[in-house]
Design a protein that fits this description.
Shape: globular
Strand content: 25-35%
Structural class: alpha+beta
Largest sheet: 6 strands, mixed
Distance between the termini: 22 Å
Length: 290
């Protein structure tokens, strides 16, 4: 009997352990290098099949934009596959918006993986990735399902092994849009490309000492546009000895030790969102596509 509904589907967030802008294409897209790590801060989705072909989203928490990435992903899959089914997509948001943690992109990836099952399409991962890339730079990573060294405009993924680690993740009340950062004249766009083996080896070695390889090239511009990012970064630096913005912000993270569980309790300024997170070995739905 065909499955008609899938409940409690995770859409985990990610951290950029570093983010280098290595150039810019003629079409205006920026060339990036980064290591993306999945973490256990996640949205939760419920997806139910409809027989009338309609696509509907239902907000179980904070309201999302009318045409969010999840709906756009569902529409792209429906059009590309010619499927006559529709879906009710219910989203319980937990990952903050405008944080640089890929929450919307992760929702879109979970929608693609879920509908591939509910609609009995049986598409392999490579076909889902073809749909994911036009949706947004982070969507292919979440469809890929592995922690990864990421290049190009986000579409070149090389899976990496990453030992379990803990991170304190803090977002100020203010969010930050990506477009203003990438169009800013002060953004550095000429960082020397790193090698996969060298960057991952240095990341592993330096993480053991509470340090981090490279930098986030977007952070100086993001801090100028949104000063609370620097306040959060300094706050984490004072407590853990390291801090870095993830993605285009405004969330900042710090690598923490096993004994740091109480550091955020009762100490976070009003309006900030904070959580102690663990890295994931892979996406919880990794096995849903070959």
């Amino acid at each position: 009997m065909a499955v008609k509904a899938l409940y409690d589907l995770p859409a985990p967030a990610k951290l950029n352990l570093f983010l280098h802008v290595t150039g810019r294409r003629a079409d205006g897209y920026h060339l990036l290098q980064s290591v993306f790590i999945l973490i256990d801060w996640a949205d939760t989705l419920h997806v139910e099949r409809r027989d009338d072909g309609l696509l509907r989203r239902h907000d179980l928490g904070p309201a999302l934009p009318a045409d969010d990435l999840g709906l756009r992903a569902a529409r792209a899959l429906q059009q590309a596959s010619g499927c006559r089914y529709g879906a009710d997509i219910s989203v319980l948001k937990s990952v903050p918006w405008g944080a640089g943690m890929g929450g919307g992109s992760s929702d879109a990836a979970t929608v693609l993986l879920a509908l591939n099952r509910l609609w009995n399409l049986g598409w392999p991962r490579r076909r889902l990735l073809e749909l994911a890339t036009p949706l947004g730079a982070d969507v292919p990573f979440f469809v890929g399902g592995d922690n990864a060294f990421v290049e190009g405009i986000g579409e070149k993924l090389t899976p990496i092994a990453w030992a379990p680690r803990r991170y304190a993740v803090v977002k100020p009340e203010e969010g930050l849009g990506t477009a203003g950062i990438f169009s800013h004249p002060d953004l550095a766009r000429d960082t020397e490309p790193a090698t996969l083996a060298g960057s991952v080896a240095q990341l592993n070695a330096q993480h053991e000492n509470g340090k981090a390889f490279g930098r986030n090239d977007l952070q100086p511009v993001a801090q100028a546009l949104c000063p609370p990012i620097e306040q959060v970064a300094n706050w984490l630096q004072a407590r853990f000895g390291n801090s870095r913005m993830t993605g285009s912000g405004s969330a900042v993270f710090a690598t923490v030790g096993a004994d740091a569980g109480s550091w955020l309790e009762g100490d976070v300024p009003d309006g900030w969102s904070a959580r102690m997170c663990r890295s994931l070995a892979q996406h919880p739905l990794k096995g849903w596509a070959d």
